[in-house]
User: Fold these one by one.
Assistant:
Number 1:
Amino acid sequence: MALTGSLSAAALPELEMFRLDAGKKESYELKPETRYVALYFSASWCGPCRKTTPSLVAEYQRMLEKEKQPVEIVLVGSDRSAKAVEDYMKNYHMRWPALEWEAIPGVNSFAPAGIPYLVLVERETGQVISKGTGPSGVEAVVTRMREFTGVATEEPFKAGSFVDRYGLLIAVALSCLAIFLFQKWRGRNEQGA
């Protein structure tokens, strides 16, 4: 399978892919109707990836229910070995293809600073349509993918739970509230003494 074109200023090299079918590794090529490729940089050791992947798997299942599939998600594994990538795919029931381990260095120049990272690329031109890092970035790309896939649901795509998304913000707000209340309490005790 060859993906050519550019993601920014450089062209993608020819990429070898595989898909797991009933746990068995099989060579994979993009379908002729596939106009867009969504490169999903992810790893099993990455907490945000493990929280984002199940939502993306569910979205992919909705994509497969369509008659045509104009967008294909391709995993670019950031694990330490080919076996770890395959295990990650099995554990999360990823039905989309992945780059062969040996092909991953060919896209390293497009790798993000952080993962999970999803970049939607027009297949023929290599033009980047949308890209995003982290759960909220992946959400934005999936929203754009839906314009091409025809997947329509009443719910917007959400990666992870409310606490996953806003946990740090909630923790900071509660800490500030605790400090404020402690200072009020201490002020009253100092006045009463």
Number 2:
Amino acid sequence: MVFVLPSHNQGEIEIIFYTSYLIIDLIRVNKNMLSLIW
């Protein structure tokens, strides 16, 4: 599904998606490190 957004919101939406993706990636890496430690 593709959402057509107003141009002034596009940058904010992309930043939100990017930061949330980075946070999820960090959590995944931390879980991998924890599983290696334990």
Number 3:
Amino acid sequence: MSVSHLLEDFGTLSSGDTIEMTDVLLEEERLEAFEKGYQAGWDDSVKAQEGQAGHVSAEFARAVEDIDFTQKEAFRTILEGVRPLIMQIVETVLPAVARETLSPRLSEIIMQQVAVHGRRTVLVCVAPGQSAALDVADLGEGQVSVSVEEDATLSPDQVQVRFEDGAEQEIDLHDTIARIATAIDAYFTTALAEEQRKSA
């Protein structure tokens, strides 16, 4: 049995209107098809460019975030590494430097008083056994009479400058060094806490 009755026969033309295609109409159809294709290609290109730009922006943002994290991590590592070194310098080097600069500091205190109150007798009190470390002649710079006396109530890191009018000034090396150490330790504690807060 044949199935030809189920299929449309294109062998004969339908009796409908015929379409006449002139060169102008054909050119207009071609131009419209070209413009539609060009616009579709342009839209696809813009979408692809936006997608790629978004991808690059996301990668760049991740890279900057990684660099920022790495910088913070490096700074925290440096702080943690330098802290013990600085504290060791404060504990070992600073006391020696303070003792070496004690005479110039005493001389400065004495000469400030001389500048304000004129020449007067000065008594420098030190702990027992510490008087040999001071050069009395240099303390007054030849302008004022300075004598050194040992005082059992003073520790080796304490020096008192007593003036004849009853004024006193004390230098406590141990206390000064302890305050410096506390300030440095507080700086590191605060800086590390701030870095920890930033990276949280």
Number 4:
Amino acid sequence: MDKFGKLVHYVHHKLGGNYTPISTLDPNEFLSDRLGHHKTPRIVTECAHRNTINTMAVFRAGMLFSGGKDGLVVLTNTDNGDVHQTWQSRTEINKMCYRNYVAKHSLVTGGRDGTLSLWVFALNQTCEPAAVFDGHQFGVTGLVNLCDTQFMSGSRDCTVKLWDVERSTPVLSETINRNLCTHMSHDANTKMVAQSSEDKSVRIWDPRNLEVAIEFPRKRHIQMYCEFGGDNRLFSCSNGFNGDGCEITSYDVRNPRAVREGRGHEGNVTSLAILHFDAPSRRLLVSVSADKRIRIWRTEEEGVNVLKPLWDEEVPLEADNLQVATYPEGHIIVSGGKGRLIHYHARFVAQRIILDVLLLQKCRKIAQSASAHVLR
């Protein structure tokens, strides 16, 4: 035992094993104390979903759509956990996109059976979609809204399709060999659509003619998700195991070969989202992974594009397919297995960022059958 170990053993013995640590001048000590008090959720509610949540879309600050394996679409108040409305689809929901034009709210969902459903908000809620679009052979795995009349979808059938809400058949369709879509993201500024794929590629589509405008250099692992970050930035994330792969990639849309990588996750990185604060310089990136961790990344330093880790911690949710959504002022929603959501609020303390847990959903209770009896 070294000298320091002997000293600790001696003090522990003399004080009966119970002694109060002496405070130091370490500036991180205050931060460490604060971190120990923000993990107890302020609100705990029961979740509405019965199974894993596959996709989320923000309705507005504090209101979130979620769709999952149980075929449910749920509109949840993420501030208090109240469920405002639900819709029941006939198939598992893989993707969704929210539409709002001239005060007309609607939602498009993409199902595992290859169909797309349009749900319209109405006072007299109906259980049936307003329209169903059929054209994909396999599950819909990418979906973005373009304008008041059009949306775009991608699938595991290697096709990308452009749709009009007034037509039941696609306006345009394009097939690329091995282009098994994993996600789509729409940039409202450039009007372009990014698409990640199982062929390890990330492409940018021009929806006007449904042609590939940019194809970035192919990666070594499947690209699981993509997200535009503003200022000509695009991010994607990959699958992997034990740190092999599992990276986040930053692209410059103006220069396809200007690529940065961020590493730290130990499993499939399943979802990304841009985290917004008041100051544009505090625009961050948040990622979740099969390693059950949430990580926050700095994307800019003194006007220079970077991709540096800023924070990470464990997410207390089940399932490997964690998803993440954000809305302004540092609010983060993460979904997991058994239909659960967790609501974080990110804030800066002592030049660092910490996550407060505002809401945590617990699993639904399974009602016991009245006919159940105990064998004696």
